[in-house]
Amino acid sequence: MDVRFPIGELQVPKKVTLENIHEWLKEIETYTIRLRETVDSLSDEESSKTYREGSWTIRQLVHHIADSQLNMYQRLKLSLTDENPTVPAFNQEKWAIQPDTKLPIESSIKMLEGINGRIVSLGYSLTEEQLDRAFTHQKNGKITVATKVAKLAWHEEHHLAHIKIALSK
Prior knowledge:
mainly alpha, 6 helices, 3 strands
């Protein structure tokens, strides 16, 4: 197993259906419960563990997940309200070392509860036609709503696996 991609790289079907979307939304809907079960009782020392040499700590990972979901939610919403908007990249490395990443993990879990609730509500209202709406990422090009929902679910699971690897060391 490549610890950089413990659940594999993101795989999106060529033709995404509403059934696919609903499966991904179920993962997002239960994510904060599963994350909380994994990190709730961690000590400060345990929160400082990493899943590989030079990787982010568990604390940084949890804050990164919240930061990333926030950015991806905004992109999803823009793609539904604007005609192919161009969105900036965000420098994950610089975000991961900002002073707010020293806050307790709970602050980002609460943030995720709200953001994921909004993503799920929005996601269940999507129509087949909306799945093809898109935004243009400054670095990665055109990304559809369907691909973004897949990434929202995959990204959280990807980092939950990292956290579990760190805790197993």
